Amino acid sequence: MNNRGLKKNTMWCVVVLVASMLLVGSCIDEDLSKCSSPCTDVTIRYLIAAENNLDPAFDCKIHSLHAGFWNSSGVLSNEIILGEEDLPDSLIFEITLPADDYKHVVLANCTQDDGTHRLFADDLEQVTFERNVLSADTIRAMSEAVFSGVLEMNLNSQNRTEYVVGLHPLVSRLELTVHVADELSNVRCYVGNTMMGWHVWSSEMMENEQLVTDATGFALESEEHVWLYGFYAFPTSYQPAADSEMNVSGKSKATDADAWKLYFLSDYLDNGVKKTVQHVFLLKEPLYAGQVFRGNFALTPSGGTYNDVETGVEVDTDWKPGGNTDVEM
Q1: Could you report how far apart the first and last alpha carbons of the chain are, in Å?
Q2: Where are the alpha helices (DSSP H) in the chain?
Q3: How many other C-beta atoms lie within 10 A of the C-beta of residue 285?
Q4: Has this prediction a pTM greater than 0.90?
Q5: pLDDT digit string (tens) for 166-199?
Q6: Cα(246)–Cα(54) distance, rounded to whole angstroms?
């Protein structure tokens, strides 16, 4: 657990918290950071909003939580990071806070590739979920579904001490079946034209037209020359779902989305000379947060199909970095 800005607290708060912990699943802030008398015990329950509306393949298991509380002065008062071993099955927590008004943000499963978390910005409007770049504008696809939740808490003038925070998906899941011709080897998979992240409090998406997501490491060979990919990536547009609970901030995010692309690079021999061929599939349907996209692709040195249908795939039989996309090799 990682806390910032901790202060020693009164014995009275300790006694209250210990008593409440007997009734609640877990304490989200075990050393009662920055609590001075009078302090307030708040019970917070986290749950996946509209979970029954998500595709069963979209994994809703919570592996970690990263929580922040900004007080009425706009200051990041508490920041808590909990790993899977600290999470009760109920996802119900008790936290003791000085009586104040708070804006609360929580991210679930937001670890970076090295297992660390990006610490929250002191300015709430600058709190983002994004991925560390591998090189240039390339990020790695995600193995876990990422969720976020926001909450306003008025501990000064309300008697309310129990809150429920709905967690909403920030990513899409892709499940790809790729049939590869005998002549092709060393297949690499990339996703292009997605967003690059989120401003969490406002649920505004972050754009980067040059961003490429590397999903190569997620390939599993199901049979000879057939590869299966299952991973998470940023969407191209926020889900304008009929169920309004899918919207994080309550604001309308139904915007038109540009087409997105799947890039496949593979090696082959052309008259004894090793070359790289690039297949670019243009997908004109938006990729939404919480959606599972499934596609069946076939790659040959000269063409390709999508969902068993001949398509307008772009094929570059002598691809070199700096072409349609400059991905990291």
Answers
A1: 36
A2: 11-21
A3: 11
A4: no
A5: 999 999 999 999 999 999 999 999 999 999 999 9
A6: 10
CA distances from 41 to 12, 24, 107, 187, 200 (A): 12, 11, 22, 54, 25
User: Is residue 107 a contact partner of residue 165, using CB atoms and an 8 Å limit?
Assistant: no
**C-beta of residue 6 within 8 angstroms of C-beta of residue 31:** yes
- Give the amino acid at 285: E
Helix (H, G, I), strand (E, B) or coil at 21: helix
Q: Residue 308 burial by CB count (10 A; 0-12/13-18/19+): exposed, middle or buried?
A: exposed
Contact 302, 317 (CB under 8 A): yes
The single residue listed with the structure tokens 């090799």 is 329
Specify the pLDDT at position 63. 95
Average pLDDT score over the chain: 82
Assigned token pair, 36: 């001075």
Among residues 58, 70, 143, the alpha carbon closest in space to that of 109 is found at: 143
Contacts (Cβ under 8 Å, ≥6 apart) of 237 = 195, 205, 253, 255, 256, 257, 286, 287, 288
- Coil vs helix vs strand at 164: strand
In this structure, the strands spanning 219-223 and 197-199 are unpaired
pLDDT at 244: 35
Residues 194, 289 contacting (CB under 8 angstroms): no
pLDDT band at 123 (very low <50, low <70, confident <90, very high): very high
Predicted confidence (pLDDT) per residue in 259-287, tens digit: 899 999 999 999 889 999 999 999 988 99
- Cα dihedral sign, 269-275-276-277: negative
